[in-house]
Amino acid sequence: VNIGTAFHPLSYTLSCKALPETIELIQDFEMPTVCTSIRVSRDGQFILAAGTYKPRVRCYDTYQLSLKFERCLESDVVTFDILSEDYSKLVFLHIDRYVEFHSQHGHYYKTRIPKFGRDFSYHYPSCDLYFVGASSEVFRLNLEQGRFLNSLQTDAAEINVCDINPVHQLFAAGTLEGRVDCWDPRVRSRVAVLDCALSSLPSVSALKFNGSLGMAVGTSTGQVLVYDLRSSRPLLVKDHYYGLPIKSLHFHDQLDLVLSADSKIIKMWNKDNGKVFSSIEPQANINDVCLYPGSGMLFTANEDPKMNTFYIPALGPAPRWCSFLDNLTEELEENPESTIYDDYKFVTRKDLENLGLTHLIGSPLLRAYMHGFFMDIRLYHKVKTMANPFAYEEYRKDRIRQKIEESRTQRVQLKKLPKVNKELAMKLMEESELPTRKKKKKGNVDNLLSDDRFKVMFENPDYQVDERSEEFRLLNPIVSKVGEKRRQKLSQLVQQEEQQQDEEEEEVEGRGSSEEEESSDDDDKSWVEEVREQRRLIRAEERENRQQEPQRHSQPRFYQIKAGEEFRSFGDVARKQKMQKTSLEERLQREESSGRLNLNDTAVGSKQLTFTLKKAKLLSRRTPTQTLRGTSPVRGVFCCCTKWKSWIR
């Protein structure tokens, strides 16, 4: 339950430190999905609510503060009413034209009306039920005789609501054309017609009698008209200013108030002058409002599972079954806390020095609080205007600058590409625009273009990627479809950059392109096909090179003789080049077969290597033959270890 006051536009919850913020008065006071209608029995003990889904009615016992029973229905309920003092006699009007009667034990009887119904009222003296709906007739069902009586014929196309005056039993029906037809049940004839359209042709959406002469009419455009039955002109017209149909109307006789509700707000105002007393705006849309008789509590059926309960002490005392609410409100009134200064401005000592108000410290104009002071907001604005008379101009310029920047962000943003590796930059930009889930698979590439460690890659031409090289073609085979689209987009961006450089103030309009990613299987298949295609092209290029080899050999070839070498013949040079391409093992076998190398095993498991060096000018003073065991720092010596079976040079 929300405990509110009549002096604020919105009811507030409990905010005292010793009290909880909300109080659950009735246990499980909710519906599975939505509550459509809510009623209180005349004895005040039972609260009944109809809702969905599935269609059902729930009865709550206020003496036990819990759910008494729940009954599921076959279809949704348009509206229902309690005919007895307690829950023993209930009438439900369903959305499929059925009228269902319930007794204390449960379902009792079901019948059907000729047209879809929207509302009904019960005439106690004659035991007649008056049904109105999508028809010009008012259907009468007599519960004493158990049969339908002659209908009341109206001039309207459809009838939305109806009500019966509790004093003189006058029956009134609100039509779709914005008129109210009044009938006398004793003679079954229309006695008056009241036009409430106000030249705007709104339909009547709510109707409620007050005493013998008062009546309130709610329209589909959000106005409430208060009438005296002796006059055809409204005494007062109250507008909700929401443009929504009025759904519920109630009178509070003790304070002469009218409680009107649309789907957004509940307003309480004086029926004589229209002065607003209070208002409640729930979080969910309102379907129905029920005022607990003789108290300041009301219930709302919302487009939400939870049914709201509001208690406003200014409307009246709390009901007998929750009288402890009065004690809570008394505690709130005894301990008022005024910690919010709506009309004050908090300033620090530095702010006072800037404004030149340090001489006011200690005066009643400044109230010390924490590390600063509270001062009147009117005084603050006046002093600030005098201290800085051009503050408004600066504020105006800032707002204009912000508006210009906002309009610039709505324009087409051109991507500025670097001078080097434009296609790589385009690829990184496209990967950075991927969703977060796909970025994890691709890796973090958002800051690669802005990272200083890689800026040389997009500035120095030496780092230009050669897409025609064999290494690039084998490492990046997927360059067909995506590469072509990227090149087209790159050419478009280059043209846009050139146009922007030529005409800087011209607005460039472009169209966004979105590339759909293929599935992983398609990517694998295309990757394999592209790799095969690239290998086939490389083999074809090798064949062309081989075919061109004879032509190259027919031409004279030139050789370079290095310093310190002796030229013998062209065959010797070719033999040296061939020997350089052979492995170390083959060269050792040739040296051993020619007698220039001697290899023996020793007892400790190592190898003994003996070889002969040719004489040279630099090695003329050394011994021609050297025998080494293990490792040696001398260059040009080969050592072998049987443990590792590897040659070390």
Automatic annotation (TrEMBL):
Gene3D superfamilies from the UniProt entry: YVTN repeat-like/Quinoprotein amine dehydrogenase (2.130.10.10)
Signal sequence residues: none
Highest taxon listed in the record's lineage: Eukaryota
Composition skew (Basic and acidic residues), residue ranges: 525-552
A biological process term (GO) from this entry: maturation of SSU-rRNA from tricistronic rRNA transcript (SSU-rRNA, 5.8S rRNA, LSU-rRNA)
GO CC, any one term: 90S preribosome
Annotated localization: Nucleus, Nucleolus
Acidic residues biased stretches: 499-508, 515-524
Start and end residues of each Nucleolar protein 10-like N-terminal domain: 22-335
Chain segments annotated as transmembrane: none
Residue ranges, annotated region (Disordered): 490-560
Residue span(s) of domain NUC153: 451-477
Record keywords: Nucleus, Repeat, WD repeat
SMART domains in alphabetical order: WD40
Domain Nucleolar protein 10-like second residue range list: 340-388
Pfam families recorded: Beta-prop_NOL10_N (PF23098), NOL10_2nd (PF23097), NUC153 (PF08159)
Similarity section: Belongs to the WD repeat NOL10/ENP2 family.
Listed name of the protein: Nucleolar protein 10
Native source species: Cyprinus carpio (Common carp)
UniProt lineage: Eukaryota, Metazoa, Chordata, Craniata, Vertebrata
